[in-house]
Amino acid sequence: MVGDVLSEAQPWQQVLALVMAATVVMGSPGPATISVTAVGAAFGLRPSLGYTSGIVLGTTAVLLVVAAGIFGMLASVPGLAPLLTVASALYILYLAFRIATAPPLAQGGNAAARPTFFGGFMLAVANPKAYVAIGAVFAGASSTVDGLGISAKLLVLAAMIVAIHVLWLLAGTIFARLLRDPLASRIINLVFAATLVLTTALAELGAAAKA
Questions:
Q1: 30: containing domain
Q2: DSSP assigned state of 10
Q3: How many domains does the chain have?
Q4: What is the pLDDT of residues 67-102, one digit of tens each?
């Protein structure tokens, strides 16, 4: 019933429905979004742009993989899914350690310790939550937003990937204002690091339950 209504809606209404679905499903807390916020809080806006760009590009690559149906083929390769899961979990733990031990912004810090574009890209493509969330949104769009072409759906979802991660990054930079105080810096960084590990564990469990 809902699908019939959406398929007969005007293009702008279908785009709005797709944006709302992406916001709820793809924009919810997960390893990538929480890591962007945590990195923004620990290192500030400008030093975090490279890492965030890697997350955005990697998540966009996941979108293309899901849209092309490649994910289904990759998931059937024995041992590949567990390997990606382990790689993602190990990098998350490394990233959480870097965030937890980041110095107050007023003290600067070692630039080499800041998460990189490559690190963000690899986390995004190995993030199980990304495949589940994007797959759900894309499948829903394919069944209910028939008036939009595949290219339009991809463009809308790619734009949402950028917008979602930029907003999470900006949210992190709000906390960055508090991180010039050493005590506040240590507490907030530890909270973000713990939250990052927790959301990753929940994402891994959710992906395993759906497998």
A1: 2-210
A2: -
A3: 1
A4: 887 656 655 666 666 676 677 677 777 778 877 777
